[in-house]
């Protein structure tokens, strides 16, 4: 692995690692966050395809790429809601764990991954590690019934959100598009969700997010997501880090997202909770490495 490939591979560490913290810091409602983030992603994608001279796909490929973006944005709305319940430092490891579980199980069931008995054994152990690691990151030293109920609600919401993240990853597999070709259509799907969600809430009596300035401040956070998505697509290319190594490097973002949520958003943990959280993050990263190397 050369230095250039490594630096590109660590792009998602910064982009996806800082994205949830920046979005939470800017504030606003989940609808403001998703609307601004998706607009920022669309602007980034438009500039990228113009510079690269990539044409917009058509037909079947365009539809599935847009569905992919719709899946991500729908799931991200739920993730933002979980942030308001328990904070990004608790929600991010859990949603990462669900995404790893979903991707691994989809690979085994639909794509024929882990074909040998040994692979299934190590893969199963890795999935157990992911669950244990996620559980450790939300462990609380001082039990509180109200907080426990809120955490259970957040975890259930994040489990439902995995359906959207699964669609984000799985839908492009029904096309012949490369990741870079799918980038702009995915961004279009994301923006469509943000706009529809804003209109839906307005019809229910809430203020229209399209008219709120805070929505457009979230364009800044969307640029971080787009940067991470693009550097991951480049990193995963065979002449760079490859899919397996690129995926592992991208998962390091959960560490930065969790720690910056604690350090910069006032999501306090005791020293014991902090040690156990770090242990949980390590287990998630080790398990992610195992799932792509077996």
TrEMBL record:
**Which membrane topology term applies here?**
Multi-pass membrane protein
Does the keyword Methyltransferase feature in the UniProt annotation? no
Entry-linked InterPro entries = EmrE-like (IPR037185), Sugar_transport (IPR010651)
Keyword set for this entry? Answer: Membrane, Sugar transport, Transmembrane, Transmembrane helix, Transport
Subcellular location field: Cell membrane
Give the main localization category. membrane
Where are the bilayer-spanning segments? 6-22, 34-56, 62-80, 92-112, 118-138, 150-168, 183-203, 215-234, 240-264, 276-293
Could you say which protein family the record assigns here? Belongs to the GRP transporter (TC 2.A.7.5) family.
PANTHER family annotated for this entry?
TRANSMEMBRANE PROTEIN 144 (PTHR16119:SF17)
Name of this protein:
Ribose/proton symporter RbsU
Source organism of the structure? Lactiplantibacillus dongliensis
> What gene codes for this chain?
rbsU
